[in-house]
Amino acid sequence: MSEWTSYRPGDLLMFSLRVYERLFVMHNQALWPAQFFALALGVAILYALLRPTAWRVRLAFAALALSWVFVAWAFLWQRYAPINLGIPYVVPFFVLHGLLLALWAIKGAFELQNRWSVSRVIGVGLFLYALVLHPLLALPFGRGLMGAEVFALTPDPLAIATLGTIAMLTPSRWRWALAIIPALWCLASGLTLYLLEAPGASVPLLAVVLFMVALAWPERKRSGEQREGQ
Question: What pLDDT was estimated at residue 9?
């Protein structure tokens, strides 16, 4: 009985927190200096979302689509799968989400909000957090910048930024459909970090909560606004 009480939640996983954090160090070392390109790409995407035109939005979602496919191969398959037997089953969903984003980019089916609203503010906040603040969490957590999780190169900031992007879309049923995979990843990542007793385990979960608030927040009727402008 005493042996069972000695187990911690992290013992349910096949790797330790130190091994998990080492993944990001190895990943960043292998991809250096791609981090600068990834950050520049994130800035360009955010600019396109804040100053939307038809071709900017298409390019922004195409870039997100490529990022999902790249992270599926470069991080999940190459780095994470060898220590986590469940990751090979996750990789196809990342690729699927990338294909969905690419499909909608080709069709030009996305329509972004042009006015500031609660959902747009939350969306921009989530994207900015994923792009700027999330990598910097490596410093207070004692991992150093080489252990940072960078947008478009690692899954957590990519999923959070994608949720922010989806929150900026005009209300439609497709917002919920496109959010399923990044939201599930955030929930799974948060659970993994919790089991590892890692600092910042609540961050992916909080991102999902904020995203749900953004989508559930009531928007003003466009028809009413149009009548006022006539």
Answer: 52
